[in-house]
Design brief:
It contains four helices and no strands. The protein is mainly α. It has one domain: Four Helix Bundle (Hemerythrin (Met), subunit A), CATH 1.20.120.
Length: 159
């Protein structure tokens, strides 16, 4: 009898699910903000000498913004599943894991996009043939956040 879980979970069970929602949105937003800021400084420095390349160089900023969308999607999906009644510790820990998965991978992806975007747009201003290489590296950095999104969505639908 001592090994059974109570039918009604304690009131603080939903705390872990809500923390997953918070982690998803906040860590992804931090990563996106860093990627945007770091790439933006590179664009500004490059635009002094080559203003015609500004629109072409905005790609890293757009890719950093997509990271925040990943966190928003997971936060909305998780928030639909947090309930007052019948919300178990198992579900709440799954939601915490889902939020941390997309949040921390989004943070890492945002940092990578920012660093690559900054160096890439500065390098492209000096050598235009670097552009394709920069885009490829940015795609590899972006896919890190996508992996976190996929894992988070898998965790969020488990029962």
């Amino acid at each position: 009898m001592g090994d059974e879980f109570p039918a009604d979970a304690p009131p603080y069970t939903s705390f872990f699910g809500v923390m997953g929602i918070t982690a998803a949105m906040s860590f992804c937003a931090i990563g996106a903000a860093y990627g945007t800021a770091k790439s933006g400084t590179g664009i500004s420095a490059m635009a002094v000498m080559r203003p015609e390349l500004i629109m072409k160089s905005v790609i890293p900023v757009v890719m950093a913004g997509i990271i925040a969308i990943y966190g928003l999607v997971v936060a909305v999906v998780l928030s639909q599943n947090v309930e007052e009644k019948g919300y178990t510790f198992y579900k709440s820990f799954l939601h915490l894991g889902a939020g941390l998965s997309v949040g921390l991978s989004g943070l890492a992806a945002g940092f990578a996009i920012g660093i690559v975007g900054d160096a890439g747009v500065r390098g492209t201003a000096q050598q235009p043939r670097l552009f394709v290489g920069m885009i490829l590296i940015l795609i590899f950095a972006e896919v890190l956040g996508l992996y976190g999104l996929i894992v988070a969505l898998i965790l969020s639908v488990k029962q």
